[in-house]
Specification:
Largest sheet: 6 strands, mixed
CATH architecture of the largest domain: 3-Layer(aba) Sandwich
Structural class: alpha/beta
Shape: elongated
CATH superfamily of the largest domain: P-loop containing nucleotide triphosphate hydrolases
Strand order of the largest sheet: 10-11-9-12-13-14
Number of helices: 10
CATH topology of the largest domain: Rossmann fold
CATH class of the largest domain: Alpha Beta
Length: about 475
């Protein structure tokens, strides 16, 4: 008969394994979504010199400082994206405003977000990869801080000696980013749970994964560095990819969480259990796993594979011959091994090393992706190679027009609307760049609403006269 404490322990036992699974999954986080916002530039200053013995004075407002960038930094000491699970928004600091006496504002500090090596950042709005970090200390700006607004000293000229306006700071770039951790392994071990992936990586490297005789022992991908011989070029990184079962590409089991880690590998080693302990058909396992790879990504299905027939120490000799001949007919190299005893692992490792010499390494796609922060110029809107980069469309209301475009929206955002001189300058730039003419051609009338970004104002059909005192 059980005592009270023994009875409680027997009830707790079935839940211990589930608790350990939950803890492990929580610690290993390989995909998160965050919002990042670079710092806005500091505002320019409106000021005039008033020093003693300085006749007539002059404009002396300094420029604002640049806003902080948001930077991803690869850190080899990190192995998970867990820290990003508890915070969604990351914002860099604003630049310091300009001041009188031509004093420029201080640039804000950049916001540096440390991530594990192998992290890929994707802009959710465009689907573009904005960062792909593959080496320690590699960094990438994913959101550029806005430049500081120009002070009124910046607008002084021989015909415009006392400008009474300055620019607001440029808004920083903001975006929603998906961070994905993709292990940087040369070789990926695939196969059904409990076929010996963890045992093999433990046998041929210094990695010490958890090994036991039940499905889903491995809850996180394990990495191991394999040194084949004294030649450093024969060293490679191997990863076991856990949880692949039928339906993994559709979210069944744990497989879909880890399939992304196979994408960076150059070679797959497909491990099949021919020992007969699992009661499954190795050939059927091979077929189903390859279907899951193809369903997830054709690129994965096209990766070269080597076949490792594991547990030959307990397998019948005629089965080893049968499976070897079967894969030979398919043109696939087959290597009978025993991860438990180490038998046959050396030929497999030499074969892996030889194949890797023939396969080029992964080149991050982000090297070709550069975010260009659209700038405004003092004389007008930034022009693209194809001409203007703004468009005008009818709004929801009959008397509403919407002007959109990166340059024009930033120009409006950097204009202090409470300053009549700055607003007049904005009107002059819009007319000079054809915006007013286009509105008139579309039928805009006095009193119609014109919206640019978050600012709306009334359209006035009159010619704008230049004023050198603005």
């Amino acid at each position: 008969m059980l005592t009270a404490s023994e009875g409680i322990n027997s009830l707790k036992a079935p839940f211990v394994g589930l608790i350990e699974v939950y803890k492990t999954i929580m610690i290993f986080v390989d995909e998160v979504t965050i919002d990042v916002k670079a710092g806005t530039g500091g505002n320019g200053a409106v000021a005039f010199r008033k020093e003693k013995y300085v006749p007539h004075g002059g404009p002396a407002g300094g420029d604002g400082g640049k806003g902080g960038d948001v930077i991803l930094l690869a850190d080899s000491n990190l192995s998970t994206l867990l820290d990003f699970r508890f915070q969604r928004l990351y914002a860099a600091e604003k630049g310091v405003d300009g001041a009188s006496k031509d004093m420029y504002g201080k640039a804000a500090k950049d916001l540096i977000l440390k991530v594990p090596i192998g992290t890929v950042a994707t802009d959710l709005d465009t689907g573009r990869v904005v960062a792909d970090l593959t080496t320690h200390a590699q960094e990438k700006i994913i959101a550029h801080g806005g430049r500081g607004g120009k002070g009124n000293a910046h607008f002084a000229s021989s015909t415009h000696q006392a400008p009474r306006y300055a620019e607001n700071g440029e808004p920083g770039h903001s975006l929603s980013v998906k961070l994905e951790l993709k292990l940087l392994a040369d070789v990926g071990l695939i196969g059904y749970p409990n076929v010996g992936k963890s045992s093999l990586i433990a046998a041929v490297s210094a990695a010490k994964p958890k090994v036991a005789n039940y499905p889903f022992t491995t809850l996180i991908p394990n990495l191991g560095v394999v040194k084949v011989d004294d030649d450093p070029t024969h060293t490679f990184v191997m990863a076991d990819i856990p949880g692949l079962i039928e339906g993994a590409s559709e979210g069944i089991g744990l497989g879909i969480q880890f399939l992304r880690h196979v994408e960076r590998t150059r070679l797959l080693v497909h491990i099949l259990d021919i020992g007969g302990q699992t009661g499954r058909d190795p050939l059927e396992d091979y077929r189903l796993i390859n279907i899951e790879l193809a369903n997830y990504s054709q690129k994965l299905a096209d990766l070269p594979q080597l076949i490792a027939l594991n547990k030959i120490d307990i397998a019948e000799e005629d089965l080893i011959t049968l499976y070897t001949e079967h894969f030979d007919e398919l043109g696939l190299a087959t290597y009978p091994i025993s991860a438990a005893t180490g038998e046959g692992t050396k030929p497999l490792l030499f074969a892996i090393s030889t194949r890797l010499q023939e396969i080029p390494r992964h080149v991050p796609a982000s090297d070709e992706v550069t975010y260009i922060n659209t700038r405004n110029t003092a004389s007008g809107l930034r022009q693209s190679r194809r001409g203007r980069d703004w468009v005008i469309a009818k709004g929801e209301a009959e008397d509403e027009y919407v002007v959109s475009g990166a340059s024009i929206e930033r120009l409006v955002a950097m204009t202090p609307m409470e300053n009549e001189h700055a607003v007049t300058r904005l009107q002059r730039i819009l007319e000079r760049n054809g915006v007013v003419t286009k509105l008139k051609a579309l039928g805009a009338k006095d009193g119609d609403s014109v919206r640019i970004g978050s600012i709306a104002f009334d359209y006035i059909d009159e010619d704008f006269e230049e004023d050198d005192d603005l």
